[in-house]
Specification:
Blueprint lengths: L2 H35 L21 E6 L2 H4 L3 H12 L17 H8 L1 E8 L7 H16 L3 E6 L4 H6 L2 H11 L4 H14 L4 E3 L3
Parallel strand pairs: 1-2, 2-3, 3-4
Helix pairs in contact: 1-3, 4-5, 5-8
C-alpha cells in the first residue's frame, strides 16, 4: 500500500473517531442534565465514575514509536497529515528518557483519546517503548481508550509469536530484566498483535 494513501486513511479514521467522541460526549452531557433534573434520580458510588466519552482529554492522539525506525520518514508524514486534519498529537521532544517512563508520560498516555502504536522492527529494542505499550494496553481495558496499530515493515505474526528479527530484538532487550517485566511486555505484545490495524506492506 502506498504510504501517502495509508497516512490519509489513518488521519481520516482518527478524525472521524475524534468527531464521534465529541458527539457522544455532547449527547452524554445532555443525558446527564435530563437525569439530574428528575427528582427520582439517584447515583450510586460506582455510577459517579465518568465514562470514556465524557472524559476530558488532553490530546487527540498519543503516538508510540521507535524513533530510529520511523522518525525521519513515516512519522513526519503522519504529523503532516495530523496538522492538515486539525488533529493534536502528543509530542515528547522535551521529555528526558530514562530507565522507565515517568509520570509525565503516563499522564500523556492516559490523557489521550487515541493511541497509535507504530510497531517496527526495532520497536522491542527499547524498554521505554515496551513500557509505553503496557500502559497503553492497560488504558484500552480500563479507560476504553481507542488503540490503533500500524505494523511498519514487520509481520504482525512475528510480533505475536516473538519470531523473526522482531523476536531476536525482543530477546536481546529482555537480557538481565526481571521476569515480571518480561511477562508484562510479552502479554502487551500478544494483545497489540491482535488489534485491528494497518500493515504497511499489505
Amino acid at each position: 500500500m502506498d504510504s501517502s494513501f495509508l497516512l490519509t486513511i489513518l488521519a481520516a479514521a482518527i478524525g472521524l473517531l475524534t468527531i464521534q467522541r465529541k458527539l457522544r460526549s455532547h449527547l452524554d452531557n445532555n443525558d446527564e442534565k435530563d437525569s439530574s433534573s428528575s427528582p427520582s434520580s439517584s447515583l450510586s458510588p460506582s455510577s459517579t465514575v465518568p465514562p470514556p466519552s465524557s472524559r476530558i482529554w488532553m490530546h487527540d492522539v498519543f503516538p508510540s514509536f521507535r524513533g530510529e525506525d520511523v522518525r525521519k520518514d513515516f512519522l513526519s508524514h503522519i504529523h503532516m497529515e495530523f496538522q492538515r486534519k486539525g488533529i493534536t498529537p502528543f509530542v515528547d521532544n522535551e521529555i528526558k528518557r530514562g530507565e522507565s517512563i515517568g509520570p509525565e508520560l503516563v499522564r500523556a498516555i492516559r490523557g489521550s483519546k487515541i493511541a497509535i502504536i507504530l510497531i517496527s522492527r526495532n520497536y522491542a529494542s527499547s524498554k521505554w517503548c515496551l513500557d509505553e505499550l503496557v500502559e497503553i494496553m492497560n488504558c484500552r481495558e480500563e479507560l476504553g481508550q481507542t488503540v490503533m496499530a500500524i505494523f511498519y515493515r514487520v509481520d504482525p505474526s512475528d510480533v505475536k509469536k516473538l519470531a523473526g528479527d522482531f523476536g531476536r530484538v525482543f530477546r536481546k532487550t529482555c537480557a538481565g530484566k526481571t521476569k515480571d517485566n518480561i511477562g508484562r511486555w510479552r502479554q502487551a505484545l500478544a494483545k497489540v498483535a491482535t488489534v485491528a490495524g494497518y500493515h504497511s506492506s499489505n
